[in-house]
Amino acid sequence: SYSGHSASTTEPSLPSPCQNSSAICGANGAIRRVKISIAAGLTDFCAVSSFNATMNADTEVLNEKFSISDVTFLMSLCMVFSSSFPHIAEEFWHGLGKEGSVVDAEWPEYDEANLKEDSVKYPVSFNGKTRFMLDVPADATKGEVEAAALAAPDAEKWLGGKTPKRVIVVPGKIVNIVI
Q: pTM higher than 0.90 for the full model?
């Protein structure tokens, strides 16, 4: 319930559904992934969070700059935002040519399998300082990520011909090369 105070730091953090807004305008798969991510994230988030935290998450999504003509995606946004921004959601809903109220619409469903990304961006650090980002297929093994990091053109600059003492790969998170 709303207590009039700012959101607690113990609430779960909502993964940003629109981290790469330029990807949203691309293939239909990217639009679908964002739509599913918003529905999944906000469904779970709204169930366990305070009013302020939910409003903050909704506002974060609204602040993303993107251009989409996919009406089903826009309808889903209206439904998701209707709990936090009811008047605005109603206006958008009718602007899309929909009859009735957005609150009577069925909540968007999602499939967890569609949330999987095709690639992972790894920050590559040298002696603990991030030097560049590396894009690797999501199903790459630790060895493949390590090999890609060491073979990257930016790595040559930071290695300076030296052999690394150790390469630490945290799957899906970071690569740290100790010189």
A: no
Residue pLDDT, tens place only, 57-102: 555 655 554 555 567 777 887 887 888 888 888 988 888 888 899 8
- The half-sphere exposure of 36 on its side-chain side, counting CA atoms within 13 A, is 14
DSSP state of 160: T
Tokens describing residue 124: 């590559």
Tokens 């409003």 locate to 55
**E strands in the chain:** 119-126, 129-137, 166-170, 174-178
Flag whether pLDDT at 44 surpasses 80: no
In terms of phi and psi (left: phi > 0; alpha: psi -120 to 50; beta: otherwise), the region of 170 is beta
What are the angstrom distances between the C-alpha of 8 and each of 2, 141, 153, 161?
Answer: 12, 37, 43, 48
At 131 the three-state DSSP class reads strand
3-class SS at 143? helix
Q: How many CB atoms lie within 10 A of CB 154?
A: 14
Question: Could you tell me if 25 and 33 are in contact, meaning their C-beta atoms sit under 8 angstroms apart?
Answer: no
